[in-house]
Every structure is written in C-alpha cells, then in structure tokens.
Write a structure and sequence with these properties.
Elements (H helix, E strand, L loop, with lengths): L1 H30 L24 H12 L2 E6 L2 E6 L2 H10 L11 H6 L13 H15 L1 H6 L1 H21 L3 E2 H18 L9 H18 L3 H4 L11 H25 L10 H7 L11 H32 L1 H14 L15 H13 L9 E2 L4 E3 L2 E3 L4 E4 L1 H5 L46 H18 E4 L10 E2 L5 E2 L4 E6 L9
Parallel strand pairs: 2-7
Antiparallel strand pairs: 1-2, 3-11, 4-7, 5-6, 8-11, 9-10
Length: about 500
Amino acid sequence: MLLHTFLLREGLVAVLLFFITRYFIHSLFRKSSRPFPPGPRGWPLIGALPLLGNMPHVTLAKMAKKYGPVMHLKMGTCDMVVASTPDAARAFLKTLDLNFSNRPPNAGATHLAYNAQDMVFADYGPRWKLLRKLSNLHMLGGKALDDWSNVRNVELGHMLRAMCDSSRKGEAVVVPEMLTYAMANMIGQVILNRRVFVTKGSESNEFKDMVVELMTSAGFFNIGDFIPSIAWMDLQGIESGMKKLHKKFDVLLTKMMEEHIATSHERKSKPDFLDVIMANRENSDGERLSITNIKALLLNLFTAGTDTSSSIIEWSLAEMLKNPSIMKRAHDEMDQVIGRNRRLEESDLSKLPYLQAICKESFRKHPSTPLNLPRVSTEACVVNGYYIPANTRLSVNIWAIGRDPEVWENPLDFTPERFLSEKYAKIDPRGNDFELIPFGAGRRICAGTRMGIVLVEYILGTLVHSFEWKLPHGVELNMDEAFGLALQKAVPLAAMVSPRLAPNAYIS
C-alpha cells in the first residue's frame, strides 16, 4: 500500500514537472518571436484562467483598460485574444472575418450540441451553410418572418389574456417565465405547427430552467477546454452536468420529432419548418443533414430563440421600472400613434422611434451575449502590429464595447434618448456598426438577428402599451447580472400589471 501511494505520488510529480518544463520551453520560444498583444502574465500551466472570476465579461473589461483594446491571455495551453473596442472588433470580425470563421472545440459543443452537429458550433463549411440557408429561407429570413407574423400575434394574445388573469387575481407576473412560455410556443408553431406548451405550468417552467442551465453551463470557462489533457478529470463538474442536461433535451426533441413524423400526413397542404427541413436534407453538392443535425438545429432554435430575446425584454422592463419617466414617454408615444382601443401591431413599430431607441439602449447596456461566441483563427495573422498565431481563440467583449466611454456618453446610464440624437441615430444593431453588435458580426453573426430584433420590439412594445407596470409592494428592484452564454438577471423580474387599453383590445 505504501509502495502504491509512493509510486502514485511520484507519478503525479513527474506529470507536473513535464508540464512545467513544457511551459517554460514554450515561454522561451515565444520571447524570441514577434510580439503578442499585451496581457496579464497569469499562472504557470493554467495561465489567466483563475483571474477571470465569476463575471468574466466585467473582469476582461477592466483588464482592457490596463492592457488595451486587443489583449492576449494564455488560457491553460491555449492562446486567446480579446477585442474590447469597436475598432478592435472590426479588425477581427470584418477585416479578418474569414480567418476567424470557425469555433474552437469545447465541452458545450461536444456534450450539448450533439458534438457540434448544430448550426451554432459547426465548422464553417458546406453543412453549416446548408443549415443556415434552410433556416433563413424558411424561418429566420425577412420573408419567412413575415409569413409567420400571425403566429406571433396569436401567441401574444394568449400571453396578454394570461397577464390580465394575473392582474385580476392580484398576482405578480414572473417576466422570464411568461416570455419563455410565449416564445417557445411561437417557435413551436413555426417548427412543428403546434404549441409545445398547452398550459403554463410545471412543464414550461422546467423547460425555462433547462434553457437557463444550458446557457449558464455553456458560458462557463471550462478548464478542460483550455487544458485538454486533463479534460477527463472534469474538475469543475461542468461536463457531467452538461451530459445530464443533454439527455433531458434529447428526450424532449426526440419526442417532438416522433410525434411530428406520425402526423406528417395531416400537413401535406401546409408544411411547417420541420417538414421543409426533412424534405430538403440534401443540397446540390451532396451535403446531407442527418437526424442528429436536425435535432441539434432544433435545440439551437428553441434555446437561443427563447432565452436571448427574453433576457433583453426583461432587462428593458427592469430599466423602465427603475426610470418611470422612460415608461411614461413610451406610453405617450404609443397613445399618440396607436391609441388605447387596439393592440400594437408590427406595422406600428416603424412609427415608434422612442420604443426602438429603448430597444437599442437595451442591446447596448444589456447585450444578451456579453462575450461573443468564441471563434478560432485558421492561420496566423497580425492585428494592430501584434502577432496572432494560428489556433488562437477570439473573444469579443460586446458588453465592454457597449459601455466604452470613448464611444458612449455616460455609458452606465440607461438613456434611450441618445439614439434619437444626430450622433447615434444611424447606429443599427444588425452587425454593420461595430459600436453596437449585440448579435455579433461577419459570417458567424447570429442567424436569428432579424427574428431577435422583431421579437424584442414587438413583444416589448406590446407589453408596455398594454399594461401599467409596478413592482410588488415592498420589493426592491435588483439589477445584478448572472453570467452565462446569455446575460440573465440574477433575480428574475416579477411585477404587478394592470390593463390600460379598452377591454376589447385583449380579446383578439
């Protein structure tokens, strides 16, 4: 027994010495090459990983003030660069976009996204292009969005009536649960031609919890991603949690697909998104989507399609509860344009510049994805005179860009009026203005950018127009963040609502 313990200890020491030796040899070679961007030294072996803390987007923003707009961090055995200003983001996501069009391997892609068989984590290539093309043509593109506008209208009607019921009962509305339920049903109607949750209750709340868990765990900086040789140890327990969560989602998605296939004969005259995808699984180049690819795509659409938009709407409502004058100005604008005898319609949005300014200000201050999904360089390149080697991970700090005092006046204030001024009026969140890139930019910009903007403007506008909002008696507004792939409120927003429109407006 003593011999076994001695050998085990000696073996661990040998492994440790091997890694330390390799680290210092690597450091010597690095010193003789072209300069890397500045950044923190970090620790031997694990590099800057312990420096990031629980709120990496905040920590990296503080580091950027010291080291500059393009930072280099040694993360375990991997190199990582962080862009923290609009110009730095433009250099990577526009000038060098093709070189940074792939995703690095990571536990989230492996254990949650069916080993990167989805659209979000897939390598830039034929399969990704086919998934993207089909999604744009039949769900996420401009024409497709117009085609399912009635679905959004009907589901929003269900949500408004449920909120009126809560008002009559004197119950608070838990905003993220309500939004997830409505959005999942909207997406379910388009993909599967049915509501995925018939009644709001434990099943829909469990789905919300699963989505939040996925976004949280996928946002963690997992040690095994940066030191692959010890990934099997799962030191943080992240990967085991991902595997359990994946099984839950797979059961849900498999059930959806089986029920859908069994009823396909009922939709021959009116195919839904999944029918179209199944019928167009192969392109002219011979690229064919497997059932796993399709399940992975559904996972993308149901999770990203609900969580990112709902978090922006929740933050917007919280900011308006914190600043009642903003809510009043929005009400005044809507009453003048729409009145109080009918609901807001999507055709009204272009006539509501203050509402659009509120949405832009929320995208700026509370981007749903604080750190752009990581990319990785295919080849070595030079940025701002600094050498970036091949296989370097790229993280764009969207949260830091939105709070950059060199770009935004009083960036910590929530001031929608800034987007009505000449200086900021033309800035748009669709990926061309790098001061405001809540959905990313370039080839790997979020496929649901158009859908996200429509959902945020339409749903937020409807909620504001339809109700008076206030916090429950004795409750203080908590504006703390909870870090993840999507930036959640640490304490979900719960509010009291009271109808402000004519009763008939809630019927249709």
